[in-house]
Write a structure and sequence with these properties.
- By secondary structure, the chain is of the alpha/beta class.
- It contains 5 helices and 8 strands.
- Strands 1, 2, 3, 4, 5, 6, 7 and 8 form an 8-stranded mixed sheet that branches.
Length: 303
């Protein structure tokens, strides 16, 4: 059979080309808005993503800063028998900032308002014990106790009392008396650091009026007023540590049988048994019963 091939007319052919061109233009123009929309969406995503990253960065920085500030703040914020006769030593109400010993950091910058005036009346005893110190005569045993809840370490107070009683210028210089700190069992006397009200109560049982200001020795108790321990008196305002030695030596002196003494003369050291807080009367301050050469520092007896 004969092969027949159909040929489109020129007009139809032109119409088809026009239709194809129109469709092609529509397709190209349709792609352009899509491309612009895609690009815009990409920009939005980049901006939003950047803002999110920046916000996360700021949050992390703030958290780090707060943590660092908290650590710095923490670092900046970062111490429960007999005596010859009862006796009391007067004391003044003058005060000063106390220097803190290694034993009582709570005393640093102490002021009268910050020192508790009363406590529960119960005591904690310092643990452990010390080596005997002193002469060849009788060795007196003692315990150190601190009233509960007053912010003082019994062990640290005991260390300071031991140091005082072991000093070569102390009561052991007579070559007879000796001391040894214990923490249990019977003892010859007790050194007790307590609030003013508790000192008043215990000393008052023996008829002594300590008036919230005074140390005393009654029975087997050497009672130390917390206020005096931390603030001393006007004569020792710049040397609280020395005044603590005067408290212990004066009251233990009473326990040993020594009475009050007066000033032996102008310019001479005040006897440790002198009530120095009532006035020096021309004498120089002194907190030891013996001098560096082992000679007793005494004065006329005071009734």
């Amino acid at each position: 059979m004969n092969e027949h091939r159909s040929t489109p007319s020129p007009s139809l052919d032109a119409a088809r080309r026009r239709r194809r061109g129109s469709r092609s233009r529509r397709r190209r123009s349709g792609r352009r808005p899509l491309l612009w929309a895609g690009a815009a969406a990409g920009v939005v995503l980049l901006v939003v993503g950047g803002l999110a990253v920046e916000q996360r960065s700021k949050t992390a920085d703030t958290a780090d800063t707060a943590e660092a500030a908290g650590a710095a703040g923490a670092a900046a914020t970062a111490s429960k028998e007999p005596s010859p006769r009862p006796s009391a030593s007067a004391s003044s109400s003058a005060s000063s900032s106390a220097s803190s010993s290694a034993s009582s950091s709570a005393s640093a910058g102490a002021s009268p308002e910050a020192i508790p005036s009363s406590g529960p009346g119960t005591f904690a005893t310092a643990r452990g014990g010390g080596d005997p110190v002193g002469g060849s005569g009788r060795t007196l045993t003692y315990v150190v106790q601190v009233e509960d809840g007053i912010g003082m370490s019994p062990g640290d107070v005991a260390t300071e009392v031991e140091r005082i009683l072991a000093d070569d210028r102390g009561w052991t210089a007579d070559g007879k008396v000796g001391f040894r700190r214990v923490s249990g069992g019977a003892s010859d006397f007790r050194v007790r650091l307590a609030t003013a009200e508790t000192v008043d109560d215990i000393c008052g049982q023996y008829g002594l009026d300590t008036g919230g200001e005074v140390n005393c020795n009654v029975g087997q108790d050497v009672m130390v007023n917390l206020k005096r321990w931390l603030l001393a008196t006007q004569y020792y305002a710049d040397d609280v540590t020395s005044y603590r030695a005067l408290i212990i030596n004066h009251e233990v002196g009473h326990f040993l049988g020594h009475g009050h003494e007066g000033c032996p003369g102008a310019g001479r050291p005040a006897p440790v048994m002198m009530q120095q807080i009532k006035g020096l009367h021309g004498c120089r301050t002194n907190v030891w019963p013996y001098d560096a050469d082992g000679r007793p520092i005494t004065g006329p007896a005071v009734g």
